[in-house]
Amino acid sequence: xxxxxxxxxxxxxxxxxxxxxxxxxxxxxxxxxxxxxxxxxxxxxxxxxxxxxxxxxxxxxxxxxxxxxxxxxxxxxxxxxxxxxxxxxxxxxxxxxxxxxxxxxxxxxxxxxxxxxxxxxxxxxxxxxxxxxxxxxxxxxxxxxxxxxxxxxxxxxxxxxxxxxxxxxxxxxxxxxxxxxxxxxxxxxxxxxxxxxxxxxxxxxxxxxxxxxxxxxxxxxxxxxxxxxxxxxxxxxxxxxxxxxxxxxxxxxxxx
Length: 256
What we know:
single chain, 256 residues, alpha+beta, Alpha-Beta Plaits, 2 domains
């Protein structure tokens, strides 16, 4: 059966995450319900499962079906059914061996902070409002220790015996006016890892701790040492890498 690939974006505010769960709205549940009109019952595969409230601007989904699909018409149909909360950006037929999750070689996330006294109602669903002034240079000192191959047990919600070792390719903070963003790329991420890293860096930016303490927390391999997690609504999956499709550089990702 042919394999199809979708690149999608979604506002995760009203969903209980990507993955299907009983009796709640999820991105996967809505997408598969919309696909069913053209394919019949179907199971999709995703590059990275996002948690409740987390967004995506470049999520990748794959599925196989015996249905004869025109990707352009499929894209139009899905957008009519799913918009505006979910948007299909690209629809295409993929190689038969393509799998959104297992073919992926890396993922990039962005965490967005609104750093000013007054909240912005139009950013409330997609950014963490932090009133205290942030020292972005100090936050970059802290995040530099994450780059490389490390065990991130101190920053993840561990699931059973799953490994928490990951390779982080870049982790950088930038600011434009009152918007502060954290761009991070890794081979993959464990549960709540990015939000754990952000929480520690924000504490550094506020002067509550220093970069050496973050490095010590990383080495401790103990979640109790680095307690805290940034709110989910500031986080978005922005890109997925595949063998012939590298991730964009953080500098190429505009701050909006």
